[in-house]
């Protein structure tokens, strides 16, 4: 008899005759409440991300200024990202077709994406590889990620986001720039993803 079987047999003997207990659960479900744009903005800032709130007409200009501010000259732009938003002067928009290697992604100055949904309560952005988002590696390898979030994509809480998402798609949940801390709480950014996250909220 294996150690596993031995332990499981002991558990079964200990539970013999114990009646089933119904556990009351009160999970929050999705609501019809709209996502609070200001709360989302505040939560994203709490994660040390850069945030701008712009109207539709101001997106292209804000993208251009953000890229110029970083000195970005080569950025990956996934299929489906509005071309008018990525037509910044002096910036080469690089397509991920054929797919760039990890080394190739590491050499670019950043990536532009949209998102599938954003969560006001947690300041989380979710990508699902849909139009304008590209494959998961695009938002994990480059050191800079600029994400354009339309107000209509912002939901109130996590249950609302889950209700909108397709669980069979490759979901990437982003809460601020990549960061980790060691046992002495020294914060290191850019270990598991972009060192800098910039979010444009389109109202």
Keywords:
23% strand; Rossmann fold; alpha/beta; 5 helices; four-stranded mixed beta sheet; 203 residues
Question: What is this structure, in a nutshell?
Answer:
The protein has helices at residues 3-15, 37-46, 59-70, 102-107, 158-164; strands spanning 50-54, 74-76, 92-94, 110-113, 117-119, 124-127, 144-150, 154-155, 172-174, 179-181, 187-189, 196-202. The protein has 203 residues and is an alpha/beta fold.
Can you describe what's shown?
The protein is α/β, with parallel strands linked by helices and 203 residues long. The chain has a single domain, classed as 3-Layer(aba) Sandwich (Rossmann fold). Helices cover 24% and strands 23% of the residues. The chain contains five helices and twelve strands. The strands form three sheets. The chain has a six-stranded parallel β-sheet, sandwiched between helices. Strands 8-5-6-9 form a four-stranded mixed β-sheet. The protein has a two-stranded antiparallel ribbon with strand order 10-11. β5 and β6 (124-127) form a beta hairpin. It is globular and about 75 Å long. The relative contact order is 0.20. The mean pLDDT is 94.
């Amino acid at each position: 008899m294996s150690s596993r079987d031995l332990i499981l047999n002991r558990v079964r003997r200990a539970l013999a005759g114990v009646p089933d207990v119904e556990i009351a659960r009160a999970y929050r479900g999705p609501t019809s409440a709209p996502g609070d744009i200001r709360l989302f903005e505040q939560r994203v800032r709490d994660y040390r991300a850069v945030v701008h709130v712009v109207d539709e007409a101001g997106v292209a200009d804000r993208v251009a200024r953000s890229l110029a501010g970083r000195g970005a000259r080569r950025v990956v732009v996934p299929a489906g990202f509005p071309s008018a938003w990525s037509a910044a002067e002096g910036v080469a928009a690089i397509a991920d077709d054929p797919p760039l290697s990890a080394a190739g992604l590491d050499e670019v100055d950043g990536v532009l994406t949209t998102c599938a949904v954003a969560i006001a309560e947690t300041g989380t952005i979710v990508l699902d590889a849909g139009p304008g988002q590209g494959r998961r590696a695009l938002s994990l390898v480059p050191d800079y990620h600029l994400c354009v979030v339309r107000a209509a994509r912002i939901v109130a809480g996590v249950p609302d986001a889950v209700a909108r998402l397709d669980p069979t798609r490759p979901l990437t949940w982003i809460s601020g720039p990549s960061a980790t801390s060691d046992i002495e709480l020294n914060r290191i950014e850019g270990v598991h993803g972009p060192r800098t996250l910039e979010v444009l909220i389109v109202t």
